[in-house]
Amino acid sequence: MSHKLPELPYSYDALEPFIDATTMELHHQKHHAGYVAKLNEALESSPNLRDRPLSELLSDLNSIPSSIRTTVRNNGGGHFNHSLFWTTLKKSSEGGPSGELGDVLKSSFGSFRDFRQQFTEAAVTLFGSGWVWLCVQNGRVFIESTPNQDSPVMTGNIPILGLDVWEHAYYLKYQNRRPDYIEAWWNIINWDQIARNYADAGAMERNLVGGRKHS
Length: 215
What we know:
Blueprint: H1 21-43, H2 54-59, H3 66-87, H4 99-109, H5 112-125, E1 130-137, E2 140-147, E3 158-164, H6 171-174, H7 178-185, H8 191-213
Helix pairs in contact: 1-3
């Protein structure tokens, strides 16, 4: 089974003016597609790994042959991270999370405003290329940063929201103004999807543990 580039749930220009259509098309069709192609190429030498869910591969990298481990880490991580990223964006976003997720953010960070400030600070100050995440582990939510295309699932954490702060995600429109890109991103978050991710986090965590036990 080959890994496939997912289709976006919206058009390339749907996130204008916050993310421009050219950036979205290049990001999806060139960068993400490149990760998928290189991941599939690496797994050709290990047919027994092709049918394993990507999240299980990334959470159990030591089970991958050393000859392809770094390639799977980098490109599998890129595929996993971007596949989540696209689903957490929408054409317009009003306000912030409500319901259980809103309550959890308030109890964990003091308020949604405090969460937003802490997340923004983590994204602005992340050195080089990488991601900033809202993660879940054992029901607890927290902010985590990862370098390059590393994913929280590599250390057993479940990402429910992520922000790509590689320059390819914003440079055409924002150049070196990463803070402006981050501020714009808050306008296009799909909080309904994040709430669903939060609700599903426990099941995903159990699946990852089960996958490692049977690898």
